[in-house]
Amino acid sequence: MTLELDWDKTNGLVPAIVQDVGSGAVLMLGFMNREALGATESTRRVTFWSRSKGRLWTKGESSGHFLLVKQIAVDCDRDTLLILAEPTGPVCHLGTATCWGIGAPQSRAESHAFIGQLEDTIAERVASRPPNSYTTKLLEQGLTRVAQKVGEEGVELALAAVTQTDAEILGEAADLLYHMLVLLRAKGLSLAEVADTLQARSAR
Question: Is the pTM of the predicted complex or chain greater than 0.85?
């Protein structure tokens, strides 16, 4: 892939913003020259030009916490890169997930990404059926019981909406969402497909 960058405008060094492909969190900012970009594209590991070291530097070369490249985009002015990557460990040398520390502002995308993580956990439970897991116990009772639980949780949420506090409503909504995710996974479906269905409806 050839990326069209205006290297002359930036004196041969462009900023590269790295974003978590799963959560949407901004992980770090580094700089790349042509050689660093080429190494990033060929190895699929984010590689910068280190201004302090005066050499190419692959993120994770010392810690083992690499940034695995999923997609690279160039901005409209052709002088900045956006890299979507999958981190294999803490990104910051201080041990935090991002270079902005534990107290970094959380985006809506990061909050929503937890649902994807929960789906992955449920999928793992469906595949491995670990003992002492509620998901395993529920699945072993069969699809009819899973469907029944979704119905029960839906009723409990509806009742909470008219008789209980906001915290209790949120708790019931969380229960309903969890059981719905289990039902979808048991049927080989996903929340992303539900979102696609909603999006298709909104276009009508």
Answer: no
